[in-house]
Write a structure and sequence with these properties.
By secondary structure, this protein is α+β, with helices and mostly antiparallel strands. The protein has two domains: about 120 residues, Roll (SH3 type barrels), CATH 2.30.30; about 130 residues, no CATH class. The protein is built from six helices and twelve strands. A hairpin with a 3-residue loop joins strand 7 and strand 8. Helix 2 packs antiparallel against helix 4 and helix 4 packs parallel to helix 6. The radius of gyration is 29 Å and the shape is elongated.
Length: about 270
């Protein structure tokens, strides 16, 4: 049913008999299995890992911090089941990634928080699942802008230049990329794979990817002018103007969603 590991944990402080001698920590591990258990108890613990009790993996505390469950243990005196879990953060008091032991009944406890029933720990799904609707919203706006831009400058290049269509398309092109990137970041946040809590950092990530898309767009226009005879890039100044407009559009949309606290991708 599990792998029995004999672990003898003794206090790192002084013994209660007043001898002043310090005790050590002795852990016996079976070959091929890695575990790390830290405790400050003064009694011996016989620890049994049951991989089929509480599922191993990442859990989120109801206050927001995340932990990795590394096994379930049994206290030798009371036979109470305990959960051993590692913090996925550094503690100023306990050091990097401290390891805790908590009774399984408390670990799985349902709390009453401001009238709402909330589990103390919730499993985090690290699998990113894309629905058809997600793929649609990620791709639709960049695709539409790209097709309008290509069609106008192939079918009516003079008219497109006359109405400054290129300027509008680059602005909205950057905005569409920002929308798609924000949507993807929201999906990653929901799945638990990537979570950017700092709004300014999230804005920088979105704008950086918009800048990359703007560079790739200008490369496409350069190749199209050479191979297809289009007039996407009449001058270096026009190229720089297009990139700046794309960044402005992307920054506007990213700021609207990030600092406006609007959530997307929650369909």
């Amino acid at each position: 049913m599990g792998i029995i590991i004999g672990v003898f944990l003794r206090s790192k402080g002084r013994r209660g008999d007043g001898t002043g001698r310090r005790t050590g920590l002795k852990i016996q591990r079976p070959q091929g299995h890695e575990s790390s258990i830290l405790s400050r108890g003064t009694k011996r613990l016989c620890v049994a890992f049951y991989m089929n009790e509480v599922s191993l993996g990442i859990y989120q505390h109801y206050k927001g911090k995340r932990y990795e469950v590394i096994g379930t243990v049994i206290e030798s005196d009371t036979h109470e089941k305990m959960v051993v879990y590692r913090a996925l953060y550094n503690s100023a008091k306990l050091g990097p990634n401290p390891i805790f032991v908590r009774p399984q009944t408390i670990f799985l406890e349902i709390l009453n928080i401001q009238g709402n029933r909330v589990p103390r720990f919730t499993p985090v799904n690290l699998n990113l699942s894309l629905r058809f609707l997600d793929i649609f919203w990620i791709s639709i706006f960049p695709f539409v802008i790209f097709m309008i831009n290509y069609s106008l400058f192939v079918l009516a290049p003079r008219w497109s230049t006359k109405i400054f269509a290129d300027d509008y398309l680059h602005f909205f092109g950057g905005a569409s990329i920002a929308f798609s990137v924000s949507y993807i970041l929201n999906l990653l946040d929901r799945s638990g794979m990537i979570r950017i809590k700092n709004n300014l950092l999230q804005l920088c990530v979105v704008v950086a990817l918009v800048a990359l898309a703007a560079v790739l767009w200008e490369c496409f226009e350069f190749i199209s002018d050479i191979l297809l005879g289009t007039v996407y890039q009449p001058s270096l100044a026009d190229t720089m103007k297009d990139m700046i407009l794309g960044l402005l559009g992307g920054t506007f949309v990213a700021s609207r969603f990030i600092f406006g606290k609007q959530k997307i991708g929650l369909h």
